[in-house]
Write a structure and sequence with these properties.
The chain is mainly alpha-helical. Helices cover about 85% and strands about 5% of the residues.
Length: about 190
């Protein structure tokens, strides 16, 4: 018995909850409300007679719906304006970001050389050309140094040879002069002592 009673109570609660939900969610459109008012109104000599309370109630509902629609329209227009402003801000931000990205890419792909922005390719070309020229200059100067060093050593050797020959020539000349002086002295001595 208790089981039947609790089952009936549960069914009642479920049906009441469904009935309330359908009543809350089942709104009638304005057109439907006008049609209903027309149906419930009475006829008098070909004219429809409308109850004032129902008319005023419908009028208030229509005005409230119109006001709500206007408010909704204003709210949507404000949202649209805000969306347009956001869109404009986003476009401006996108443009600024693109410019910043472009500047960053230019900076990344270029090197400042004596205050002039050069691309990395031109900078590398200039740098390696300069290194190559310096290497060629070093090789040329090294070659010239070796050549001049060889010439200097040969000249020093020639100088030593010439000095040696001069020294020998001087010694021979001195010996000849001494020999000539002796001979001359001998002759003078012979002439004096006859």
């Amino acid at each position: 018995m208790k089981l039947h009673l609790s089952l009936i109570t549960a069914i009642l609660f479920i049906s009441i909850s469904f009935a309330q939900k359908t009543k809350d969610t089942g709104e009638i459109s304005i057109r439907g409300k006008f049609d209903r008012l027309y149906r419930v109104s009475t006829n008098y000599k070909g004219y429809k007679v409308i109850n004032k309370e129902k008319f005023l109630d419908l009028k208030q509902q229509v005005l409230d719906s119109s006001k709500a629609s206007k408010n909704l329209l204003i709210e949507k227009n404000n949202l649209l304006k805000a969306s347009k402003l956001d869109s404009k801000k986003n476009k401006d931000l996108l443009t600024l970001t693109k410019l910043t990205l472009e500047t960053a890419l230019k900076k990344e792909n270029s090197i400042s050389f004596f205050g002039i922005q050069l691309s990395k390719f031109i900078y590398n070309l200039l740098l390696w050309t300069l290194v190559s020229l310096l290497l060629i200059l070093v090789l040329y100067l090294s070659f010239k140094f070796q050549k001049n060093n060889f010439i200097t050593k040969r000249a020093a050797q020639n100088l030593k040879d010439v000095e040696h020959e001069y020294e020998q020539h001087r010694k021979k000349a001195l010996e000849r002069e001494q020999k000539l002086r002796r001979t001359l002295q001998d002759e003078i001595n012979k002439q004096r002592n006859p």
